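Teaching note: in complex prediction, the entire set of molecules is handled at once rather than each chain in isolation. The prompt given to students was simply: 'Predict the structure of this complex.' The entities are:
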Amino acid sequence: MTLQLQCFGESGNSYKAALALELSGLAWEPVFVDFFQGAARTPEFKAINAMGEAPVLIDTDHDYSITQSGAIQDYISHLSGKFAGNSPKERREVLRWVLFDNHKLSSMAGVTRFLMNFLPEDKRPQEAIAFNQGRLQGAYAVLNAHLEGRQWIVGNDITNADLSCCGYLYYPEPFGFDRAAFPNIDAWLTRLSETPGWKHPYDLMPGNPSDRA
Amino acid sequence: MTLQLQCFGESGNSYKAALALELSGLAWEPVFVDFFQGAARTPEFKAINAMGEAPVLIDTDHDYSITQSGAIQDYISHLSGKFAGNSPKERREVLRWVLFDNHKLSSMAGVTRFLMNFLPEDKRPQEAIAFNQGRLQGAYAVLNAHLEGRQWIVGNDITNADLSCCGYLYYPEPFGFDRAAFPNIDAWLTRLSETPGWKHPYDLMPGNPSDRA
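The expected output is the structure of the full assembly:
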């Protein structure tokens, strides 16, 4: 096993990389980062990723490691030839949606879900949560409108755009996303989850909330 | 003039594209988007950019348009051969920092600056502002630590990583960024601003708060 993904189940950013690895057919293994015990804030971890975040992909064969889910996806595409788009324009359109996801969708969904589910109830900043949820409605609407009449976000195949934007959208913990209110997103998530090899985040990566229950 | 950038001065995301265009040596012209009068929310504009945001780059010679500052920078690098990094690993490292910027830095700085400066005082969500400012301190610390002993974020030259992360950091309006508290960021911003051809956002793009004073 040459590709190791340092990740944890609750991390939608880790899921973007784990799902790309799983669907790429590359051999890989998850390595649990005990984020909720502070494992991502240790000097040892920050020596690997100064950004102090999961996921981290380590390619021992090539003595190479890379962080940021979108950059890991780029490397997985480099190794597998998959998910990057079929032309320079498609590749840039994939990048555009990966950036949209990082800017407006997963970044907001991830922090909002964390605040609503993984902080003690008396420590949840309700105004910030409501503000983030409002911003997220705009992001869902943009994605839902784009998916009108489309099977996938870019072109005719699954790309890193799909594998990025779905990062937080399969999780059961509430963060204000009403899948039924966005029928094109709902159908696209179903389409992706019916793809051979797809797995739910909690089936693909170690660690989930029940471990801490 | 074949490259038109639809932009406005207050937009740090527009600035990322405008500064890349200016420093690339490509011929371009800014086209004012009157964002504060709702110009980015019109059907005409959304027909160009369903994401409803500036900037938008239009290449009339190639009948091509692209949005998202990081994707526009990718296209500018495609046209100019500049700012993308000098190897596949550098290119991916540039992408990693552009994603970090979109995820943690410019996305948070842009909205926080908007809330603190461009909303009526009685409509400013103070808890959300404070929460965002707290998250931003972590992003500044990551960038400041990375810049220790470095001239530029990736490699030995200005890349899109620099031109992305600086997007909001030259603006005079307060959003909780204390440049003096992050000496490596301070020196890097000075280094970039002393690069021949560099211009301040309000000197590079039409529109600034004094127009509405």
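Point out the following to students. The radius of gyration of chain B is 17 Å. The helical segments of chain B are 12-24, 43-48, 69-80, 88-117, 126-146, 160-165, 183-193, 201-204.
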